[in-house]
Structure prediction request, 64 residues.
Amino acid sequence: MSVTLVQHKHCPSCGKAILASRTTCEGACEAGYDRLKRNRKWMWRGWFAATAFLVLFLVTYGPR
Prediction:
């Protein structure tokens, strides 16, 4: 008995199987995934800003 599976991937929000050409399910998952991407982008920007501030602070006021 041979079973052939259709190429698929899983929705990053809910985990359901979706077509390989799609990013998320339709509806609430799509909106939630867009919000997640936006939040991650701002988190990375904040992390880089904090790191740059720390480096600048240490270079300016660090041990001499």
